[in-house]
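Morning run. Coffee first, then this:
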Amino acid sequence: MKFTVKKDVFIKPLQLVSTPATGPAGANPAPVYSNVLLDVRQDHLRMVCVDERTEMEVTVGQLSGVEPGATTVNARMLLDSCKTADKGEVISFEQNDGDPQVKVSSGNAAVTLVSIDADHFPNVKNIKQIASFSISESVLRKVINSIAFSMGDKDMRTFLNGMMLGMSGDQLILATTDAHRLSCRTLKLDEPVSMAQNAAVESGDANPGDGKTDLQVIIPRQSVLELSKLLSDSKEKIEVIVGLNNIKIVTPEFSYVTRLVDAKFPVFAQLFPRDSDLLCEVLMPCDLLRSAIQKVAVINSENKVTNARASCFLSPGKFEIMFENNRRETARDSFQITYQGDNRQFSINYNFVQQILGSCDQSYMKLRLAEKSAVFESPDNKPGSELRYLVMLIKS
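And here it is:
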């Protein structure tokens, strides 16, 4: 195996593909999981990294001096070695037949890395496709970032530790919950989802849920967080391929495969209050609400995560928020709103509201208050394209 490539062409794809292999020390169960597969063809280099949950693959062109072959070397060692090369410098790779070492050189510097035979590399099996669709890369990234914060973390109820992806016709429904709050985003695709015949029946793990989707799967929390970093703001279409046990995202720069959570997402549609159950509805200016929360949170110095109960007061033309810490110190702030209903008081975790405001790019959010929950909705919601957040109220 032999090839040369410019550092500027090689380093970014290597950083991208190394994600599964360069985690915390000891995270991978076998040495080969810490390696990157270098599969050299006549016109391109295919690089793959895997762990027990995911597979990342990238393709690099603009090679020269190519002698086809395949091997694996430690991803972190290779990445660190290539980073030392000067900008614009050419990096050479060479491994002779039968030699367990790979020579990596640039300029006057050279390192030799111990390899593991490519035959021992654990490639993920082919996906048995049951559904697929195309979506703008920037749109998918934006949707993930708008709801990922409310996923569960290491919950014994495994269905909470991820993001639900529901598909039906030309509509997607994505939702996350940790049992205290729920985030839901629906959007229309340019073209309908391509669904295999009897896909929901074949999948076993698929859950039609509230009856509004033909197929539902759960993407693990860690994979969702990784995708939010890997996806770019490109408007180019990417392909999402759903299999029985895994899902594959194919972009112009990389392909990413992850296992699905072996569980069913809870039915959640009925959690959103009906219009007849609402106590009131008011349009909230996001900047003023964000500022008010920041001002009252200043005195919360003991436990900012769990001790975040704020008392909220609605009165004609005014919204007020008050927080009291464990030393019985209080902080208040208020601002004007366009509300002419009855006086209302409720208690809510202000951290949850802060995360909602930080995850959406809305100037206003519609607050729909019910007996046990508060729903924050985009005022731009329309059938087939909705953004909704539900937060359970704290009992007095």
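The chain has three domains: 2-120, 129-270, 273-392. Good start to the day.
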